[in-house]
Each structure stands twice: as C-alpha cells, then as structure tokens.
Write a structure and sequence with these properties.
Elements: H1 30-37, E1 55-61, H2 66-70, H3 77-81, H4 86-89, E2 94-95, H5 102-111, H6 115-118, E3 124-126, E4 133-135, H7 145-148, H8 154-160, E5 164-169, H9 177-182, E6 187-190, H10 194-206, E7 211-217, H11 219-227, H12 232-249, E8 256-261, E9 267-268, E10 276-278, H13 283-286, E11 289-295, E12 298-303, H14 308-319, E13 323-327, H15 328-333, H16 343-346, E14 352-356, E15 361-363, H17 369-372, E16 376-377, H18 383-386, E17 387-388, E18 391-394
Parallel strand pairs: 1-7, 1-8, 5-6, 5-7, 10-15
Antiparallel strand pairs: 2-17, 3-4, 8-18, 9-16, 11-12, 12-14, 13-14
Length: about 400
C-alpha cells in the first residue's frame, strides 16, 4: 500500500534558522567586552577579537546593516575604508540578535544581555499581566520601566567603577523609558545636530582617563522605512552619516577606540500580495489568534487559550515555506532569544513565533496601517537584517 504524499513542500525546519552569535559576537557582547577592558567588575570580555582601550566610544547608526554598507562604497567612502577593521581586524560583522529591531537591539547593547534576559523580545509583545500588547519602542501602554527590565546597564556598572560614562543623543530621548532601561548611567547630553553630537562625544572621551561613551544617529533607518534602500533620500543619509563618522574619528583623544555599529540591517519589500500577506484579510491566519505582535518579518502570535497547537499547525501550513515557524518552546530551545529566557520574559514571547526567510511580510493593514506601509523592513535572521558592522578606529 502506497503511503500518502505531502501535497506541498515541507516547512522550514526550526533548527535551520541562523541563530545570532550570542556570547561571542552579538550586540549584547560589545559593551561588556569594552567595559571589561577597563577593569569594570561584573562584566566579561566576550568578543575576543577586540583589544582593550582606556577610552571607548560606540557610535550606533540605526538601520545600517553590514550588507547595505558593503553595497554602497561610493556613498560611504570613509566607512568602506574601515571594513577590514571590523570585529577587531577580522573584516567580519557581528550579529544583532533576534528580533533584529531597534528596541530589542538597544536593550541588548546597553544591558549587555540577550533578549531572553533583558525582556524586550520584539517591537510589540504581550504583557502577561494585562494580556495587552506592549509597544517597547514607544513604551505604550506605559509600564513601570525597571519592573519590565530590572538589570543594571553596562553604563551604570562602569560609572560605579569610576569610569566616565556618557550618552550623546537627541534631546528627545533623554527621559524616555527605553533610555532608562537600556542606556542610562553616567550623564546624558542632548544635541540636535549630528555634527554637535560627534564633537561632544569626542569631548566626553577626553573627560576621563577611562571613558565609555555612546552616541546615536537615527535618520538612516527612517529614510529606509519611508523611501527604501534604493532611494536618493536613503543614499543621502548614508553620505551624511559617513561624514559624521569621519568627523568623530578625526577627533579621538589618545588611548581611544571608536566602534561604529548598527542595531539591524534592512530589506525592501515589494508592494504586492505575493510579498505582503495581510493578516487582517486572511481568515486562516486569524483563526484562533487573540493578539498579533512583533512586526512584519518577526511576528509574535498569541493564541486563544487552547488553540495554540491549531494556530501553530495552520501558520506552518500557510507560511512554512517562507518563514521559520516555531512554537514558543521551540524558539527558546533553538536559542533564538539567547541561551536562556527569564521566567518573567517567557510569557512575552508568542505562542507561535514567525521569522521571515524570504522577501515577504505579514502586514496588518487595519491594525497597523503605518507599519504596513513601510518600504524598508527588518526583524528576522537573514544576513541583510541580522549582520551589522563593528568598524574600528584607534588612536
């Protein structure tokens, strides 16, 4: 008797997803490595390729992934000249962490912890206490910040150890909950223009024999979301930030190291039904789903109680050729959110987790109209989203 045949290709295996390089080469490993080089207690040097420096500055360019930088040498000549310096002269990138999105990545940078520990595992996640979606970038609805993320930041540990710690960013970020849980410690200096930030970051490096400084630029990401990576606007932003990196590099005081990195890369997704699957208009995907979290390329799916298995089966059948589809426990066991997941974080992760492999989105045109209209997107574990530079300049 012939066995029945599977009438469509097998879904992607959970274990085939390229898990971030937690513990050796991820964003969460950067500040602990730099602080350990300054003899700050309680941190470990995890990125073995980086040599210690008495003064270190991290310049995070929102949205500038490794692949996007390498594809645009004419727009970014200075950073292109530094590609061989990436990751301590190996010429290799590091990984953002999953999901590759701003709130998650900034928390990983500042706390030195992977998402399963710091507890910001997505753009929007369910609060287990209220059963409502929590936007972790905008911090809506408001939640007590240090209950949501209780660990100290690396800046706080450095400051307590006598290192001059400082953040130089837009004044709008000074009092946000995300800054409090991810980047607080030492002093915050708000400056509007990129040029002023570079000048002040260099000055803050000079302010101590040991110094740990962070600065940030967001407009590359904004241009990519609105206009896409092929737009003149995006290329113009890349040209501008390249000049900012050079400006800062040329002002480094002695015994300093500048590290240029990013929170994620980006990918443009075409505007058609093949590449943008609308959850709000797909009855199969909606069946048994209580809440849809995450973002288009990195979804957290929260099932109606008792429907978890059915939702997982349906999502695998409908999307399993294009997305890695995992149950919560499968994603945790595979290490998507780091080596371990804290108990308080467990319920924030979706009953089903969907990470895009192909050039496709799960949009929600009614409940997420602004996000669904974005040209450039990110979140998943593909190289275009996951790999970020770690360019180095030393004085």
């Amino acid at each position: 008797m012939a066995l029945p045949t599977w009438d469509h290709p097998e879904p992607l295996a959970v274990g085939s997803a390229p898990v971030p390089e937690y513990g050796a080469g991820s964003l969460a490993d950067l500040l602990p490595t730099l602080a350990a080089g300054m003899e700050v207690p309680g941190v470990t040097a995890a990125i073995r390729e980086l040599a210690p420096a008495d003064r270190a500055c991290v310049f995070l360019i929102d949205g500038l992934g490794w692949e996007q930088l390498r594809a645009h040498p004419d727009e970014a000549p200075f950073m292109t000249s530094l590609l061989a310096s990436s990751r301590g002269g190996t010429g290799r990138p590091i990984t953002a962490g999953y999901p590759a999105t701003t709130a998650t990545s900034l928390a990983s940078v500042g706390t030195g912890l992977p998402p399963g520990a710091h507890g910001l595992p997505g753009y929007t996640v369910r609060d287990p206490d209220t059963r409502e979606l929590m936007n972790q970038l905008r911090w809506q609805p408001w939640t007590a910040p240090h209950v949501w993320q209780p660990y100290p930041t690396v800046f706080q540990l450095a400051h307590e150890a006598g290192v001059h710690a400082a953040q130089v960013s837009s004044p709008a970020f000074e009092h946000t909950p995300l800054t409090k849980v991810a980047l607080s410690g030492g002093t915050f200096h708000g400056r509007l223009s990129g040029e002023d930030r570079m000048d002040l970051a260099a000055a803050q490096l000079r302010a101590g024999d040991r110094a740990l400084v962070y600065t940030y630029y967001s407009e590359v990401d904004g241009a990519g979301h609105r206009y896409g990576l092929d737009s003149d606007t995006w290329r113009g932003q890349l040209m501008h930030v390249d000049r900012l990196v050079q400006r800062l590099a040329e002002q480094l005081p002695p015994r300093s190291a500048l590290y240029v990195t990013a929170d994620h890369g980006m990918i443009d997704i075409p505007f058609d039904e093949q590449h943008r699957i609308d959850f709000d208009e797909d009855w199969e995907l909606r069946a048994g789903v209580a809440l849809l979290g995450g973002e288009g390329r990195a979804r957290h799916v929260y099932a109606v109680p008792g429907a978890e298995s059915d939702v997982l089966t349906c999502w695998r059948e409908v999307l399993g050729e294009q997305f890695w589809i995992a149950s919560r426990d499968e994603a945790i066991a595979a290490g998507w959110f780091g080596p371990t997941v804290d108990e308080r974080v467990y319920g924030r992760i979706g009953d089903v987790v969907a990470a895009a492999r192909d050039d496709v989105l799960i949009i929600a045109s009614e409940r997420e109209p602004k996000e669904s209209a974005m040209v450039g997107n990110h979140g998943s574990m593909t190289p275009a989203e996951q790999l970020v530079p770690l360019l180095e300049v030393r004085s």
